[in-house]
Each structure stands twice: as C-alpha cells, then as structure tokens.
Write a structure and sequence with these properties.
This protein is mainly alpha-helical. It contains eleven helices and no strands. About 30% of the residues are buried.
C-alpha cells in the first residue's frame, strides 16, 4: 500500500512538471511570467552552484531555528505555569484571546523601527507567530488531564512539580508536539516573509532581488527551494513527533495500521 501511494505521488508530480513545461511552451501563458520547468530546473542548478545561495539558506535556517526554539520554550513554560497556578488561566484568558489573532506581519513596521533589517527583526516576527501555536496547544493539553489521575496524585502526596512531571506532562505531550509541528511551519513562513519584506539576509531577500532584477527563472527556483525546505521541515517534525510519542496510543495505532 505504501509503495502504491509513493508511485501515485511520483506520477502526480511528473504530470505537474510536464504541465509546467507545456503551458508556457504552448503560449497559454507568457514565458516572461511563468518560465518552463526546464528553465526553472536550470536556474535551480545554478543556485546550488552559487556560494551566496548557501549563505542565504544558512541565514534563513538560523532565523527559523532560533525563533522556533525561543517560541517553543516560552510557549511550553508559559502554558504549564498558566495552567498550574490557581486563577492565572482565567486572569490571562482575555489577554491571550486579544493578542493571539494579531497577524505577525502587522508587526513588521515595529520590527523595522526597533531593529532595522537585522536578524532580530526576523526573530521578533517568528517568535510572536510561533509562540501562540505552542502556548494554545499546551493549554489544551493540560486541560485534558484526567481529574481522577490528578486527585490520585494529590492523595499520594505528590508535589506540584511531581504532578507536572508524572501526570500533566504525559497527557499534554501529544498536544505540545502538535503545537511544535505547527509552529515549525509557521516559523518558516514568517522567516521568509520577513526576509522578503524587510530585506533581512536570507532566501526571502534573495527572492526579492531576483524579482527586481527580472531573473524570473531564478525567482521560481528559489520559491521551489522554500517549498522543499518546508517539506523537509514537516517530514522532520512528524518524525520527531512519532519518536517522542512512540508510547502513545495514537502513534502505536498508526504503526499497527
């Protein structure tokens, strides 16, 4: 079954690439706006041979990784503290619901005002967007803790942090891993967006330069790179999630199927 799915996926990709080659060749769209697949592939090869491309890729991955790490740590800690401290969840609920819907791109003027086009501007946007993904999932996970298990732990004299470790954390971990997987994708989107709009070093800035210089095949090649990067991040996040939750019924059931 898995081999059949891979074959179907490969066939779909082949058809998509063939359409990308045929549509501009047949004159259905102008090559100046959408070059054939072969030209994009040539530009992709040229990018891989350019040392500046790898520098830009490293800048993007740095902003993504650092921003995601900060957001993950802050989101998990804040979620646990808000959940275990009495009345703190009710006290912060309205503030969270007010701040969470604010689009991160709306903070671009503030980021530029504070840090210009430095890495810190990218981190500000990435951390803000990713933080809410982790925080909300952590809050939901803690809310899902079995009250009977919680009361049993209390009756055995477990302290607050012992209950967090042995009762709360195992229940919340599946939610936390989901939040981290979502945050990883959001962090990449905001990293590239910040680089494109602000001009911070990275793939986004390189895409903007290619657009302004009318290097359309190079622009599409760089867009493909960001897509492949997102795919790798998603596959990696799912792999980490399966390993971290190997004991959980959802993963064991998935493996059994």
């Amino acid at each position: 079954m898995k081999g059949a799915n891979l074959a179907l996926g490969a066939a779909g990709l082949a058809v998509f690439l063939a359409l990308g080659e045929a549509v501009p060749r047949l004159g259905l769209v102008k090559e100046a706006y959408f070059p054939p697949t072969s030209k994009i592939a040539d530009a992709f090869t040229g990018e891989l041979a350019d040392a500046a491309f790898w520098t830009a890729l490293g800048d993007t991955l740095t902003g993504w990784a650092v921003g995601l790490a900060v957001a993950a740590c802050a989101g998990i800690v804040a979620g646990v503290v808000i959940s275990v401290v009495p009345y703190l969840r009710e006290a912060t609920a309205s503030t969270i619901e007010f701040l969470r819907p604010i689009p991160s791109v709306a903070l671009i003027p503030l980021a530029v005002l504070l840090y210009g086009n430095e890495l810190r501007s990218v981190l500000l946007l990435v951390v803000y967007a990713s933080f809410w993904q982790v925080l909300i999932q952590t809050l939901y996970g803690v809310r899902d803790v079995d009250p009977v298990a919680e009361e049993t732990a209390r009756s055995y004299g477990l302290g607050t942090w012992a209950r967090v470790r042995y009762v709360l954390w195992p229940t919340a971990l599946p939610y936390v891993m989901t939040g981290l997987r979502l945050a990883a994708a959001v962090a990449l989107i905001l990293t590239v967006t910040a680089e494109l709009v602000i001009g911070s070093p990275g793939l986004g800035a390189r895409i903007g330069i290619a657009q302004n210089s009318q290097a359309v095949p190079d622009m599409y090649a760089l867009i493909v790179v960001t897509g492949l990067l997102g795919l790798l991040i998603n596959v990696g996040a799912r792999s980490v999630e399966r390993r971290a939750l190997a004991w959980h019924q959802s993963v064991r059931g998935e493996v059994a199927v």
